[in-house]
Design goal:
By secondary structure, the protein is mostly helical. The protein has a domain at 1-84: Winged helix-like DNA-binding domain superfamily/Winged helix DNA-binding domain (Arc Repressor Mutant, subunit A). Helices cover 52% and strands 10% of the residues. The protein has eight helices and three strands, in the order ααβααββαααα. It has helices at residues 10-17, 22-29, 36-42, 48-60, 82-85, 88-106, 109-112, 131-141; strands at residues 34-35, 64-69, 75-80. The chain has a three-stranded antiparallel sheet. The chain starts with 9 loop residues before the first helix and ends with a helix.
């Protein structure tokens, strides 16, 4: 086993989830299994090569599971592993900090964040749910 030295433990974290795309991929996977094409569609700025590379690295590090279905045409999905789910609180904190930063720098988060289902665009600017969101939530409780 190779002996590795870190100056501070966050280096070990960043070695696994650092870079431009890994946390973005992981945040999307907290919302359920995704096929590569799903991830590519919701992350249009990432190249196919980079997406594939990042998914492979996350799989090698035990953060995501790659599920291959024995069917024609072939189907592959990615999901967070149990170990990957241990990053959920870190990812939530990163998202919360990013939202605060966007508001500080740009004022209106809705003008900056994509309306992709992850950014709560069904919420009034005052933070209260819209009528649509309230009725949806109410019907889910029934």
């Amino acid at each position: 086993m190779v002996t590795k030295k870190f100056n501070i433990s966050v280096e070990a974290t960043l070695e696994v989830i650092g870079g431009k795309w890994k946390c973005v991929i992981l945040c999307h996977l907290t919302h359920g299994k995704k096929r590569t094409s799903d991830l590519k569609r919701i992350m249009p700025a990432i190249t196919q090569k980079m997406l594939t590379q990042q998914l492979r690295e996350l799989e090698q590090d035990g953060i995501v599971n790659r599920i291959s279905y024995n069917q024609v045409p072939p189907k592959v999905e990615y999901e967070l592993s149990e170990y990957g789910w241990s990053l959920k609180s870190i990812l939530d904190s990163l998202c919360a900090w990013g939202e605060t930063h966007i508001i500080k720098e740009y004022g209106d988060k809705f003008a900056v964040l994509e309306n992709n289902g992850l950014n709560h665009h069904d919420t009034h600017r005052d933070g209260l749910p819209t009528e649509k969101e309230s009725s949806t939530h109410h019907s889910l409780l029934l």
